[in-house]
């Protein structure tokens, strides 16, 4: 609960991404340092902990800790991480405990040597699988899906590691973009639904795997392609080997990557995130052609959509809320008694821009509605005559079971309130959301059938076991 409280105080009533992974196979290069920069580019996917594992061909060394990449790693630490390949992980906990044992990469000894694992996603049948494993004598030191997966791989009774991986993939369900590293090779796996992104790039004579293409750009790697849903990519001294052990599956890429999570400079499954966000604003303008004096975004993820909306409607666009980007994890949070301060530390209205105007404010989503009301009030206090809130995604009515923390269903304001009740709750003059068809149109050319939008409609592509 402490986390919930802190988040709402800071105006971060948003779905939370679970993790980001970055791996590089490049003998002769400073792989730990490159991984550090790759993780920096993926920091938006998880701010709670960070870690890097390096293999020198003989053994794997791992360093990790709670905090941002810049807080966990110092020059000295990177200097000591020497090897031919490395992979790193940034993490935001979802329903698993926020404990040190869960920080990734997780590193294990097994019969054939050492193996490290990092995971982005969430298994939907982990409780059932864990119970089966425990009944068979397995012990766990963390509550993470990653440890469960490793345990299943090494206990699969297979003749080699890859066969163990393929057998494990037949049993695990849910979303996963995984990186595994042994002393000699790196393995990337994307779940058969392709829910979470994973891409492959070239770095000199070596290769890179990353959650988002922005990390490839940052380290100077060339994008080759997205890892296909259900594909296993093995990188070693022979180059890249691709296995597709499963029958092609109906894809279900998380639509929220385009709405909020991914960086605008990333391209996922062929679609630019920036272009998709711009298209969301255009669709919003087609569906809700309002009149006003000014269009402002809730920064940063509302910016492209607000610009598109203003352009489409021929209305003036301006930044009207200034965001403080330096509020990190170690920030001393204000007490509950001073909630206003909490929001103002993160966002402050620009009075000269807003005063006397009829303002349209564009945000990407409303989860619990805790901060939208405070922001609307802030805009009014800055002198706005009217405040109209437009949301560039549909109402979130269902929880996510695939690795995104959208809060429990009981906390989702749109699960229990109609749009007008939400409008009254946040005190806006009007409130409108983008429709599901508008959302689907914005991410074309990705087919609607290839997308997960379950949190907007409850149509879950993967069933969830009763106790998960
Ligand atoms: S339920 Fe929502 S947040 Fe979760 S994977 Fe599907 S679209 Fe993404």
Question: Would you mind describing this structure in some detail?
Answer:
By secondary structure, the chain is α+β, with helices and mostly antiparallel strands. It has two domains: 2-249, Aminohydrolase, N-terminal nucleophile (Ntn) domain (Glutamine Phosphoribosylpyrophosphate, subunit 1, domain 1, 4-Layer Sandwich), CATH 3.60.20.10; 268-447, Rossmann fold, CATH 3.40.50.2020. It is built from 18 helices and 23 strands. The strands form six sheets. A seven-stranded antiparallel sheet has the order 3-2-4-1-10-9-11. Strand 15 and strand 16 (271-272) form a beta hairpin. Helix 2 crosses helix 8 (213-219), helix 5 (126-135) packs across helix 6 (145-154) and helix 10 runs antiparallel to helix 17. The site of iron/sulfur cluster (SF4) has 13 residues, from helix 18. Residues 15, 195, 254-256, 400, 402, 404, 406, 452-455 line the site of iron/sulfur cluster.
């Amino acid at each position: 609960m402490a986390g919930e409280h802190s988040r709402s105080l800071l105006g971060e009533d948003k779905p939370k991404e679970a993790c980001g992974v970055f791996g590089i196979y490049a003998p002769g290069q400073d792989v730990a340092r490159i991984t550090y920069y790759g993780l920096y580019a993926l920091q938006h996917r998880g701010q709670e902990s960070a870690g890097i594992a390096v293999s020198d061909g003989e053994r794997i060394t791992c360093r990790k800790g709670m905090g941002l990449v810049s807080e966990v790693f110092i020059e000295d630490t990177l200097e000591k991480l020497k090897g031919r390949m490395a992979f790193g992980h940034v993490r935001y906990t979802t329903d698993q405990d926020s404990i040190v044992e869960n920080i990734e990469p997780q590193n294990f000894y097994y019969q054939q040597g050492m193996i490290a694992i990092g995971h982005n996603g969430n298994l939907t049948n982990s409780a059932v699988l864990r119970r089966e494993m425990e009944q068979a004598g397995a012990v766990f030191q963390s509550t993470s899906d990653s440890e469960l997966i490793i345990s299943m791989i090494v206990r699969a009774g297979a003749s080699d590691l890859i066969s163990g991986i393929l057998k494990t993939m037949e049993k695990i369900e849910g979303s996963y973009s995984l990186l595994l590293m042994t002393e000699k090779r790196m393995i990337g796996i994307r779940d058969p639904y392709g829910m979470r992104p994973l891409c492959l790039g070239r770095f000199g004579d070596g290769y890179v795997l990353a959650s988002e293409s922005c990390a490839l750009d940052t380290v100077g790697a060339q994008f080759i392609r997205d890892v296909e849903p259900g594909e296993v990519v093995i990188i070693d001294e022979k180059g890249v080997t691709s296995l597709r052990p499963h029958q092609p599956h109906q894809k279900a890429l998380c639509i929220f990557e385009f709405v909020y999570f991914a960086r605008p400079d990333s391209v996922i499954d062929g679609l630019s995130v920036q272009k998709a966000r711009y298209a969301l604003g255009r669709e919003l303008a087609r569906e809700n052609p309002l009149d006003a004096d000014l269009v402002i975004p809730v920064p940063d993820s509302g910016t492209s959509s607000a610009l598109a909306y203003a352009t489409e409607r021929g209305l003036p666009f301006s930044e009207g809320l200034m965001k403080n980007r330096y509020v990190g994890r170690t920030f001393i949070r204000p007490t509950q008694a001073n909630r206003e301060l909490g929001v103002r530390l993160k966002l402050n209205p620009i009075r000269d821009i807003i005063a006397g105007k009829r303002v349209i404010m564009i945000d990407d989503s409303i989860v619990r509605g805790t901060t939208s009301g405070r922001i609307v009030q802030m805009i009014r206090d800055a002198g706005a005559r009217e405040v109209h809130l437009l949301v560039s995604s549909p109402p979130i009515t269902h929880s996510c079971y695939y690795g995104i923390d959208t809060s429990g269903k009981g906390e989702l304001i749109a699960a229990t309130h109609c749009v007008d009740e939400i409008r009254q709750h946040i005190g806006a003059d009007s409130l409108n959301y983008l429709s599901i068809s508008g959302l689907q149109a914005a991410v074309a050319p990705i087919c609607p059938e290839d997308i997960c939008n379950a949190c907007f409609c409850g149509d879950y592509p993967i069933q969830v076991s009763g106790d998960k």
